[in-house]
Input
Amino acid sequence: MGPGVERVLAHLAARLGSSDDSNPELGTAEVPVTEMDWLAAMMRFTPDILAWHAGRGIPEAVSHATMADFGRNMSINRRVHNRFGMDTYKWLNHAFSGRIYQLGRLQYLIHQPAAQIPGVADGEWILGIHIPEGGGFGEAAVAESLALASGFFAEYFADRPVRTANCESWLLDPYLAAHIDAGSNIAKFAALFTPYGAPRDEPTDAVYFTFRTRSMENLSELPRATALQRIVLERIDAGGAWQLGFGSLVLPGQASGRPARHGEKAPSVLR
Ligand SMILES: CC(C)(COP(=O)(O)OP(=O)(O)OC[C@H]1O[C@@H](n2cnc3c(N)ncnc32)[C@H](O)[C@@H]1OP(=O)(O)O)[C@@H](O)C(=O)NCCC(=O)NCCS
Output
């Protein structure tokens, strides 16, 4: 095992179970740390994260669904760059440190937000919602996932009570809601959230998630076959920039305004 892999392994071991989601540069001039070092270290570390999940009593099905993000990202990497690799290794830190879980259709990152969110106290734990690509993004799948999340975190992270979820995404860019069919899955998902803060320019996200390219060159060559593809490109053609929108929602069963307590009845289709 090379020194780069050893460095990443030490980093992953130190971060396991930690809420620290900073991404320090691990490489130095003497010991460079490459994308391949990250990839190799994450594969070697998989038994450790699975054992950590098991130690918390997390059902194996959730553990496997969560760590499947590794393979998903590897296959996306091949689509994006046409080669073996993992340009999203920093993102995968969330999975390898036990902070993110896939529950039904969505992924949930348990964290303490750095910026103020209306209705969320300083230091309060919340769930960051992430949307992996794939089908089944209809209203029912999203509702089922939210209900699962509420129950899952109350049961397995009782020490970090949550009642709010937030989402920071190009899918919540107000421009998208104004231009996509109101009956679409994307519009219905965005409508679940109460917006907060001012949207922030993030011009590449919409292009990356719609077309899986990191390049902003030659956009005119990209397909315009679907409504979303047309909306994304037409905005850029008109000189506009895509943004990140911010929104929050109260998790199901949490409307009373207090976090769920350990042992409270919650949906349990996880086992
Ligand atoms: C979010 C996502 C699951 C929504 O897919 P969906 O359920 O098909 O969305 P909708 O049904 O609302 O789609 C509305 C229109 O956009 C199109 N569309 C949706 N996602 C698309 C995508 N990734 N690429 C191209 N077209 C897409 C649909 O085909 C449809 O167009 P049509 O009416 O011409 O057929 C999908 O866009 C996706 O996998 N995105 C990548 C992950 C992502 O963006 N995560 C958020 C990161 S912050």
User: Anything to note?
Assistant: Confidence is low (pLDDT under 50) at residues 262-271.
